[in-house]
Predict the structure.
Amino acid sequence: MKKNIFKGRVLSLNLYTVTINKRKVTREVIEHPGAAAILAIENGQVLLVRQHRFPHGYVLEIPAGTLERGESPLKCAHRELREETGHTAKKMKPLIKYYPSIGYNTEIIHCYLASGIKRVGSLQLDHDEIMSVVKIDFDKVVKMILAGKIVDSKTICAVLAYKTQKISG
């Protein structure tokens, strides 16, 4: 049984009553359409956005955004890179996908590695987005993650997955 508690612009909260191993249990689940995130590296520099994330303030993160209805993660990645950074990519290679909060949230984040980066224009931000573009050396980004200066999960997952693949590949 499913009971809707809240329906917002990007997510909804539902209360599920289900039977698992012959036990009736209740679960609160945030329903989210998923997101795409982009690790764009150009000449050893990572393209990051400095974005205000209420209630945490400004954070450094890779560009990303929510999938629109019927949109593929790949198409979303290309769209978000263009909107949030003013750049395009010739190629997007799947890097890693993961559930950021698997216990109560349906969101899955699809991370891509972008190559052939080219600046094509200015940012095209939504009215509630407050951000700027920052380029930081890849090795410095890794150090910032390990020092706790970059705390965004999609950025951490994408950067460390790429670093691991680079080392082992």
